[in-house]
C-alpha cells in the first residue's frame, strides 16, 4: 500500500472518509474509505490497487520463487497463493506424500498395524523396517523389509467385500493386483494376510498375525528362500502370495 496521507490525517479521518492512495501497478492516485484501509492492514479487504484489472496484474507480477517441500524441485507461486500456506508443492502427488509422512492424526493405519509395528521393532531391533511407505515400488506397502526384499500387506474386509459398492471394490482389487505386479518386477516377495474378520482390535486375536509374519521373517533370515503360498491357523486366517479376489 502506497499512502499519500500523513499519520495525523489518518487519525483525524472518520470511518467513511476517503483517503488518497497510489496504485502499485499503474501509479494512478485513487481513493479508499478509511475502514477499507483498516481492513487491508488487518489482512482483509485489498487496497493496493485502483481496480480489479490492476489487482490481477499485481497478483501475477513478480512471482515468488521457492522449492517443493517434498522433492525440492524449483517452483513459482503467485504472491497471493504463496501466502496461503506455509508449505508449497510442485504437484498433488508431492503434497500427498508430504501429508502422509508428516500427519499426526487422521491416519488410515489400523490399531492392528500399529500393534504389529511395535511388536516387530521389539523382536528385530537391528532389522530395518519401512512401515506404510511408498519408496520401494511407488505404492504404499504396510510392512517392507529392504534387506530381505520382503513385504506384507494386511488386507481388511474392504479388499474382499463391496462395503462401499462394487465399483470401489473393483478399484481396490485392481490396485492390489498392480501392487503385487510391481513387487514382482522389483524382486520383492509380497505376502498378503487376510484380516477381514477383525471388526475391532483385540490383542489376543492379533497374536496369530504377528506369529505368521515372524515365522516368514525368521525363515528368510535363516536363508530359506521359499515362502509358503498359504498358511492357516486355528482361526482360519489366510496368507497368500497374491491378492485374494472373489
Account of the 3D structure:
- The chain is of the alpha+beta class.
- The chain has helices spanning 7-12, 34-41, 52-60, 79-82, 92-102, 111-123, 166-185, 203-221; strands spanning 2-3, 18-22, 29-33, 64-67, 74-77, 130-133, 141-145, 150-155, 189-194, 239-240.
- The chain has 3 domains: 1-59, no CATH class; 62-106, Erythroid Transcription Factor GATA-1, Chain A; 111-240, VSR Endonuclease (Endonuclease, Chain A, 3-Layer(aba) Sandwich).
- Helix content is 37%, strand content 17%.
- The strands form 3 sheets. A 5-stranded mixed β-sheet has the order 6-7-8-9-10, with helices on both faces. It has a 3-stranded antiparallel β-sheet with strand order 1-2-3. A two-stranded antiparallel ribbon has the order 4-5.
- The chain is elongated, with a radius of gyration of 29 Å.
Helix-strand blueprint:
Elements: E1 2-3, H1 7-12, E2 18-22, E3 29-33, H2 34-41, H3 52-60, E4 64-67, E5 74-77, H4 79-82, H5 92-102, H6 111-123, E6 130-133, E7 141-145, E8 150-155, H7 166-185, E9 189-194, H8 203-221, E10 239-240
Parallel strand pairs: 8-9
Antiparallel strand pairs: 1-2, 2-3, 4-5, 6-7, 7-8, 9-10
Helix pairs in contact: 6-8
Supply the key terms.
single chain; 246 residues; alpha+beta; Erythroid Transcription Factor GATA-1, Chain A; Endonuclease, Chain A; 3-stranded antiparallel beta sheet; 8 helices; elongated
Amino acid at each position: 500500500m502506497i499512502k499519500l496521507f500523513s499519520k495525523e490525517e489518518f487519525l483525524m479521518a472518520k470511518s467513511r472518509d476517503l483517503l488518497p492512495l497510489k496504485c502499485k501497478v499503474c501509479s494512478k492516485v485513487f481513493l479508499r474509505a478509511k475502514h477499507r484501509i483498516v481492513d487491508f492492514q488487518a489482512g482483509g479487504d485489498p487496497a493496493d490497487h485502483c481496480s480489479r484489472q490492476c489487482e490481477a496484474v499485481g497478483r501475477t507480477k513478480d512471482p515468488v520463487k521457492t522449492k517443493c517441500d517434498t522433492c525440492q524441485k524449483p517452483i513459482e507461486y503467485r504472491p497471493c497463493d504463496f501466502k496461503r500456506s506455509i508449505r508449497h508443492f510442485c504437484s498433488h502427488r508431492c503434497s500427498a506424500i508430504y501429508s502422509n509422512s508428516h500427519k499426526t492424526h487422521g491416519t488410515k493405519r489400523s490399531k492392528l498395524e500399529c500393534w504389529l509395528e511395535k511388536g516387530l521393532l521389539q523382536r528385530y531391533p537391528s532389522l530395518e523396517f519401512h512401515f506404510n511407505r511408498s519408496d520401494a515400488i511407488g505404492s504404499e506397502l504396510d510392512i517392507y523389509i529392504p534387506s530381505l526384499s520382503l513385504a506384507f500387506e494386511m488386507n481388511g474386509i474392504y479388499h474382499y467385500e463391496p462395503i462401499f459398492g462394487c465399483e470401489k471394490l473393483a478399484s481396490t482389487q485392481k490396485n492390489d493386483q498392480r501392487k503385487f505386479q510391481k513387487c514382482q518386477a522389483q524382486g520383492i516377495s509380497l505376502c498378503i494376510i487376510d484380516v477381514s474378520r477383525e471388526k475391532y482390535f483385540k490383542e489376543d486375536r492379533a497374536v496369530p498375525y504377528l506369529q505368521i509374519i515372524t515365522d516368514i521373517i525368521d525363515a528368510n533370515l535363516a536363508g530359506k528362500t521359499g515362502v509358503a503360498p498359504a498358511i492357516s491357523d486355528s482361526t482360519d486366517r489366510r496368507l497368500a502370495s497374491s491378492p485374494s479376489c472373489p
